[in-house]
């Protein structure tokens, strides 16, 4: 049953809101028609919702978009960007000319889908099902870290309610009691190719929302008084709320209202002109939003750098243990937070959780929500570290990709990578992660070989921009480096080497240890092998590779516990692609489907064990004679 308004707004206020909604519709039509592309009908359906929200409920200082007390507005249905940008015009932060003349044009910040190149946009949206999950992270920060009364409003489309990530978000919002989060669902019945799964079945939407522990408010999304009543109730709720608004796609333009085939299509100029006139013409209404209460400044990060864990050289330590130790050490900074996907006793993120439970967020087996929450937390200035098995981050890959589009500053840790994990078998072996993470715009990809380098790299990620990925190993391996050694991003380490090297063995992570053992065996045969720990997979140490080419006559053996596509070998070959000097690269990688077994058995079977490295080095020498 649709909720009726319990109080009626004054007639003059209803008129004002109706005029603003008409302006939002007109401007959505004008900018998309001028651009020749866009989603005006998806914007028209939600115009009434936004008119009421920005006029009466969104507490926001438009002159200070990064103000700590501001509410947050997220367009999870990012394709409705004409409406969002029309809101920005109504708020007075962009001009009418900028909206109409530059929308979707080359070089304009008013892109086809919103991105944080605009200061009033928190996260990039447009890949459906992501805005609300990011809102969960922002709301987590507000309730548990900032302790501020701001509210998070996420406008969702009914099509994206078919995405599992939306329900992960509602589940975690309920679990954490996020009374400061409201999803506004624009139930306009039509998706891209036709009717949505549930069309206007508001009762089923309601029952699903309530089953996930959230309060559902069902309204007519074109009844201004009912919208106002629902948003007021949402702000006062004791848990997360979902406003289910029954709307009409294309509302306000009878020629396209509730008609299929108009998704993502601008109105032709003649139709647009008729629609604008029917809606009352162009307006220049300015909205004065409710101002938030002043908030205290964010605490500054002061004091000495964290004291990183120390390890004795030669002691066997798993890099996943070093990750947990280093993360706990970083917890001395109040801006560091951690998330995990219910495997923290394996990733070792539990060490942070035990020391700083107020800054540890368990996302359970919801990897999409885990990454989205990390993106939301960094919106509020926190430095999130999110961890799970490397293989399971693939479930959240679109969220990681969009984090790159958002220019989000997050750190991810993938443990239990490669065939090295042993008996668990191929379903648990992250063998694609380096390629996937290297492909993310602006990412950093790190793969330490021992505990000292791992701890140093974890510390290096905390203030690094963009999406940062650290790959850790399950098994224990000897500490190779001295405490205090430097591991700059983009660097590498030379573990063996001299002027008379005949071949270079290049590894990262576990294969560094195999390369060292192979170098020892080759030395017994009178072959001098250089060993390089290429711990920074992206950016890669090109100078070290050039030195290896020139110092060994171009004989390189690259060894990785990863599929051959896109990982360490690809990083090396791409770095040397423009080199005019001859290079012969033997690339050892996991090329067949692994099975269960011991780490040694599986690495030998994959052709990345010690004997395979020795054979590849011999072959490289033989081919050059």
Brief overview:
This protein has 625 residues and is an alpha/beta fold. The chain contains 22 helices and 19 strands.
Number of continuous helical runs: 22
Helix content: 25-40%
Low-confidence stretches: none
Radius of gyration, whole Å: 28 Å
- Give the number of DSSP strands: 19
Shape type: elongated
Give the termini separation. Answer: 84 Å
The largest beta-sheet arranges its strands as: 8-7-9-10-12-11-17
Overall SS class:
alpha/beta
> Can you give the mean pLDDT?
96
Bin the strand percentage: 5-15%
Largest sheet: 7 strands, mixed
Keywords, separated by commas or semicolons:
calcium; magnesium; alpha/beta; 625 residues; 5-stranded parallel sheet; 15% strand; 22 helices; 7-stranded mixed sheet; 19 strands
Provide an overview of this structure.
Belongs to the transketolase family. The chain has 625 residues and is of the alpha/beta class. The strands form 4 sheets. A 7-stranded mixed sheet has the order 8-7-9-10-12-11-17, with helices on both faces. The chain has a 5-stranded parallel sheet with strand order 1-2-3-5-4, sandwiched between helices. Helix 1 packs across helix 3, helix 1 runs antiparallel to helix 10 and helix 14 packs parallel to helix 15.
